[in-house]
Known about the structure:
Elements: E1 3-7, E2 10-12, E3 18-25, E4 33-39, E5 46-51, E6 57-59, E7 67-72, E8 77-82, E9 91-99, E10 102-105, E11 109-113
Parallel strand pairs: 2-11
Antiparallel strand pairs: 1-3, 3-8, 4-5, 4-9, 5-6, 7-8, 9-10, 9-11
Amino acid sequence: QAQLVESGGGLVQPGGSLRLSCAHSTMGFSMYAMAWYRQAPGKQRELVAHITSGGSTNYADFVKGRFTISRDNAEKTVYLQMNSLKPEDTAVYYCNLRWRVADFWGQGIQVTVSP
């Protein structure tokens, strides 16, 4: 079974930066995609960024130009570099691994953007 553990969250002022990390184990399988989702109070969970096994990326419109997703396959870690943070970015961020038809999730990590 895949295991995912997020780290790097916390409190940051508007305009600041933060980098999230997600260390994951895969039990040996390969060719999996990774993604970051987030969920704010009272809102649905939404896709933030996605990266394929080959490194191709896709972003939600509200983070384009501000966030960057990357992965280190050797270290089995995916990152989310968040720049120019806004108060509306405040949410619990979840790491997601998709392999074939299976989805695996991290426990979530809080990101708060506030003065």
